[in-house]
Amino acid sequence: HLIDKGNYRHFMEKEIYDQPEAISDTLSHYINFVDNRVIAVSGDIAFANVQSLAISACGTAYLAGLIGKYWFERYARLPVEIDVASEFRYREIPLSPQAAALFISQSGETADTLACLRYCKEYGLKTGAVVNTRESTIARESDAVFPIFAGPEIGVASTKAFTCQLAVLAALAVAAGRARGTVTEKEEQILVERLAEMPRVMAQVLDSIQPKIERLSRELAKCRAVLYLGRGTSFPLAMEGALKLKETSYIQAQGYAAGELKHGPIALVDENMPVIVIAPHDRFFDKTVSNMQEVAARGGRIILITDEKGAAALKLDTMHTIVLPNVHEIIAPMIFSLPVQLLAYHTAVFVGTDVDQPRNLAKSVTVE
Length: 368
Ligand code: G6P
Fold this sequence. Notes:
Blueprint: H1 11-17, H2 19-28, E1 31-32, E2 37-38, E3 52-57, H3 59-76, E4 80-84, H4 85-88, E5 99-105, H5 111-122, E6 126-131, H6 137-141, E7 144-147, H7 160-180, H8 185-208, H9 210-220, E8 225-230, H10 234-249, E9 252-257, E10 274-278, H11 285-297, E11 301-307, H12 308-313, E12 320-324, H13 332-351
Parallel strand pairs: 3-4, 3-5, 5-6, 6-7, 8-9, 8-10, 10-11, 11-12
Antiparallel strand pairs: 1-2
Helix pairs in contact: 2-7, 2-8, 3-7, 3-10, 7-8, 8-13, 9-13, 10-13
């Protein structure tokens, strides 16, 4: 069928707004909404018996995997080794056949990720692929396929594939937790109920934040460099925000763990560099606030992305605050992805780049 932009100016914009539907389609394959249980989809991967998980991927898919690591470790108590595929394949990692390996790839054709898959199979690991293209090489060669149902993604900068990858990883982590006895039936129900709310909350956020994001993006477009900070799962999301901004607007951007601020990036802070802080009101919030105070004390311009509880608890002047609804921490990374993606998108539009096809980048990298 014909793929068009509909009423949107760019595919990236359309794909950002596609997310409630894409997430809903994806979740319906992993969640039984009637009894709030995860569907047993683990195929050939027996999470109950594996001793660890190895994840490899490239680009945005790698950052989805990094968030997945937090979930598998927390909910399934499963140690996760993760690296970008181009490093993973050459590191000579001591892999045990008791480990399982996951490969995350929108296209299912990324050369380095495919090489990791073949490498892990040689070591006798069970393999699983989180892909958007079921007819892809990575899907074909994996023992288990965990498809996302994002639909075609045309914009080079990945948006809906990222949040759908996260939705699948979250469901798999809960499934693994159930299999391993680290998530009780009651906890599973709560987590699944929260996951099920995601499309509705996403639609609500997308409906309301655009005017504010546009105002902010107009200012960001004039900047030469931007720093993103976060803790916990907001740390990989900070890296994803920086990646999205640099890919689409060519503005130098870096994502850092907020706790590393003192170990380098604070040297960059002055009144010219915006610092985008991703901080839901979770167990890290107070620590992130103290990092923001350090930025503010040096004249840094803070753009805070938080939730209602965070905004109410804050006693600090930020340049701008984007306030999202309060959500459970298992869906926070997907919900907080929305302002992060929209900031990159609108900034790129103000800079005037070729948003869907940024210079030098390819949608799918099939050579090493
Ligand atoms: C390219 C794309 C990115 C993508 C990465 C991995 O760099 O521009 O958007 O995240 O490849 O692609 P994959 O298809 O393996 O997810």
